[in-house]
Request: fold
Amino acid sequence: MKSSPRISIVLSILAIGIALFLAIADAQAKEDVIYRFNFTEGSQPQSALISDGKGNLYGTALGALCGNDYCGYVYKLSPGSGGAWTQTVLYAFKGHPDGSWPVSLTFGPGGNLYGAAFRGGANELGGVFELMPGANGIWTESMIYSYSSEGGPTSELTFDSKGNLYGTSDDGGDGYGAVYELTQSGGTWTENIILQFNDTNGYSPEGGVILDSKGNLYGTTVAGGPSGNGIAYELTPNAGGTWTENILYNFTRSGANTALTFDGDGNLYGGGGTNVFELSESGGQWNETILHSFAGAPDGENPSKVVFDANGNLYGTTQAGGNGCNAPGCGIVFELSPQGGGVWKETILHQFESATDGSVPQVEVLVDNAARKLYGVTRYGGGRYGYGTAFVIEH
Reply:
């Protein structure tokens, strides 16, 4: 019996769907949950994982209520025999006048840990904290700066070669956001607002800033600028402590909500909306190339910051999308590999399933080139109450 055109079309669509599903399934890398957060010692991890170079991982998470806030923790994950990992709480925040809701973490000179707290501090607007290791594994915390008018830290902190700290906030200036610098003298840290956004020159810098070898800063905003869809900007230091902003690119689709990443040639990479993009300069003009546009299910949606491995591949996560869980999906870990001629191939390394392995990975992965492993966290999932996970992917 001759099939109808409609049946043929349906069969073709099914065949394409099955082929796509099999391609994705074949691309799955090996994923293991190395820690399930349990609320008592942290929940809903907030920052990306960082490494001390000795195999230990560090991050921040929320915690039990203190007053009307989720105080939070700085934690350490240490590998043991047989693939087991041990979690240690390095510091539990206490709220006012201490910090609370730690959203970022980075190592500074001398091995101390630094990060931004979204709330708490002397003015209840959050601040920047320092953690110093001591005897018997005891870490001492101090708020080196409490936000006054800018508030709302939105990103990881960046050190320059002189030990100065840089970060961004959502509420600086007239509420459009700001880029700030913290400098230390005699043990006292002083803040300098080096850029106040005003909508015309950008609005809401959700990603942090990165430094080039000349001391220039680069970042993005989600909104504002000539098109209203956000910008990529450069800040150049001047004599006397002032900085000059140069708008490198006006986004026309959607602004970037992640920090940027350099490649070896000085090109910039980031994520925003549904895209991973590259910004490259030629003849003084910066141009955007979309490396991949995410499509929800079975693809990802809302990508994180992307990071390179030693072979020039990019890795990241998406908050949603994929075929795991129910719509709109629990997110994925992806790889983008250059194919030549400006073409990049996406490979889905893992699709999250919520209860088993976590859901909503909102930050970038940590790349271990030597072991071909990626480490990351999910904000939710991982068990009955969904307090989040830390995971490793071998690829």
